[in-house]
Specification:
By secondary structure, this protein is an alpha/beta fold. 45% of the residues lie in helices and 8% in strands. The longest helix is centred in the C-terminal third of the chain and has 18 residues. Bound molecules: zinc ion (ZN).
Length: 336
């Protein structure tokens, strides 16, 4: 995942690079945009370029080699990564303060604030990358805020999130927002092909991924596909107990149960939007499912009720401990 050939975002990358070279990046940045489109990779590139012996993230030199491999360290000479941990998937206060995770194994030797106060290697900034920044809880967010307010010289935070609305307003307002657009479908598919995807899956992979790479993993893709089909079956009146399997959380997942419902609920909203399009005589965005959607589009049921139920469920996800009744309620609103 950390190969130097990043797909897309040429304009943003060039602009950031120009500003960096001109000393015109001040304070902290907030990278927003859909999940899985390479925001984090662009953030890493900024740090990698500075540590690269050739200053271009060549991917070959000793400096770049530190950024290679799937297990990127949490601490590099000019980069500190803060990532969510544990089943709850939150960024905890002790990670910010002391650099510890819940098993008390140091992930890096110092807390963020101490790390940020050290002077950077020659010719480098110090980058603090907060991945999935929407998983900062209130107390860790507040601790971070203190450093964000007055970052030490040559230290920049980059907060990366696909859910900026879930960040504390006080944090958002202290960062410069850099919005990322989805990849053009052709660029996303080119990456997919390099990862072994075959033409037969092109239409469904592209439709479901919407210019992101989050379904690059085959299991993730097959699951999303099964979720679409489960919703369509439920719309057709199949009993919940028979059809809802793929929508329910997986026990062995690293994501919290409630968080696992986000994808199926978002897929349902996309399906409902497509049904509305088809009723208005337009083509659905999920083109490969056009035929399967024809019957529910033609049936005289209200799309508003399930849409509201899904939105309401999404609002309650962070606190939800029993996903099945929640899904059942949304499914009940289908077809009525
Ligand atoms: Zn290099």
């Amino acid at each position: 995942m950390f190969s130097p050939d990043i797909a897309g975002h040429q304009a943003i990358r060039q602009r950031l690079l120009d500003r960096l070279q001109g000393g015109r990046i001040r304070g902290s940045l907030l990278f927003t945009g859909p999940e899985g489109i390479g925001k984090r990779r662009v953030a890493l590139e900024l740090a990698q370029r500075e540590i690269c012996f050739r200053r271009n993230a060549c991917g070959q030199c000793e400096g770049c080699r530190m950024f290679a491999g799937d297990d990127l360290p949490f601490e590099l000479p000019n980069l500190l990564r803060i990532t969510p941990e544990g089943k709850a998937g939150v960024i905890r206060i002790d990670q910010i303060r002391e650099g510890l995770d819940s098993t008390n194994q140091p992930r890096f030797s110092r807390g963020v604030i101490e790390w940020a106060s050290l002077s950077p290697p020659v010719g480098c900034h110090r980058w603090i990358l907060v991945e999935e920044a929407h998983r900062l809880n209130e107390s860790s967010g507040n601790i971070l805020l203190k450093t964000l307010e007055e970052p030490p010289p040559d230290t920049h935070f980059i907060l990366v999130t696909h859910r900026p609305e879930a960040l504390l307003q006080t944090i958002r307002s202290r960062c410069e927002r850099i919005p990322f657009a989805p990849l053009p479908p052709r660029e996303a598919w080119a990456v997919a092909q390099r990862n072994g995807w075959q033409e037969a899956d092109h239409d469904r992979w592209s439709a479901l991924g919407e210019g992101s790479l989050r379904l690059l993993d085959e299991t993730a893709f097959r699951r999303a596909e099964a979720q679409v089909e489960a919703w369509i079956a439920l719309m057709g009146g199949r009993p919940f107990g028979e059809a809802a399997g793929p929508l329910l959380p997986e026990k062995e997942s690293t994501l919290a149960q409630g968080e696992q419902l986000r994808q199926p609920l978002e897929l349902l909203l996309r399906l409902l939007a497509d049904l509305a399009r088809m009723r208005a005589g337009e083509a659905p965005a999920l083109t490969p499912w056009r035929e399967a959607l024809a019957a529910p589009a033609a049936a005289p049921w209200d799309l508003k009720a399930p849409q509201e139920a899904a939105l309401e469920a999404l609002r309650h996800l962070p606190r939800n401990l029993s996903p099945e009744p929640l899904l059942r309620e949304v499914a009940l609103a289908l077809g009525s």
